[in-house]
Amino acid sequence: MKTRILVLGTGLVGRAIAIDLQREGHGVTAVDLDENILKDLQRNYGIRGVCMDFRDNSLEGLAGDSDLVVGASPGALGFGLMERVISVGRNMVDISFCPEDYMELEPMAKAKCVTVVPDMGVAPGMCNVILGYHHRHMKVDSYRCLVGGLPFSRVWPLEYKSSWSLPDCIEEYTRPARFRSGGKDVTLPALSEIEPVRFDRVGELEAWNSDGLRSLLGSFPDIPDMVEKTLRYPGTT
After folding, report:
1. pLDDT beyond 90 at 155
2. DSSP string covering 173-199, please?
3. How confident is the model over 32-48, as pLDDT tens digits?
4. Taking Cα atoms as reference points, which of 2, 230, 232 lies closest to residue 122?
5. Domains, in order of start, for the chain
6. Which site in 14, 131, 180, 210 is 20 to 30 Å from 146, CA atoms measured?
């Protein structure tokens, strides 16, 4: 029997998630306000689409009829959607870069006996998995994550092409950055402590503090130095 998976959001990342899950043989239902994207997913990939505003109360019914929910909404909607999915007792994987502290939902999730995996993107997300693996196999004294998918061609003025939610990408430039230095948790403004970083065949980039550690600060309290920095072409900050 196919696993019934509900994908909330079919933007740049959610669409790819829905297609991959469908190709793996799952029964995927995609929810979005963009009817054209949903029609394309149905026509080309056989994915059932539901055109719906996430504020619609019938969303809980769709979630309740699913085995797993994938949240691929903009960050501003992420926390509320996680809360609503938990309320109907469904497990969830979420990629939204929500500004709220999703750990506030832990008591509710435990009461409903469900598992929610937040921040499961590339960074945060894949970086968390990599650190978790190495932390299990060796003693980690420091963790430094440099992240920033850059376009091959530099086009003024941003010299960047967002591959995910643009409003959340802008949050990287504005949200205070939390990190750990010398065993103490520290918060500094985004774009702070700019430093040059050089890569072969790429050249020199700029790295600055961004708020991507998130749950890692609580998951690995024994690592005294932890920081995430976003990479951009020089001069874009």
Report:
1. no
2. HHSPEEEEETTEEEEE-TT-S-EEEEE
3. 999 999 999 999 999 99
4. 230
5. 4-117 (3.40.50.720), 126-232 (3.30.360.10)
6. 14
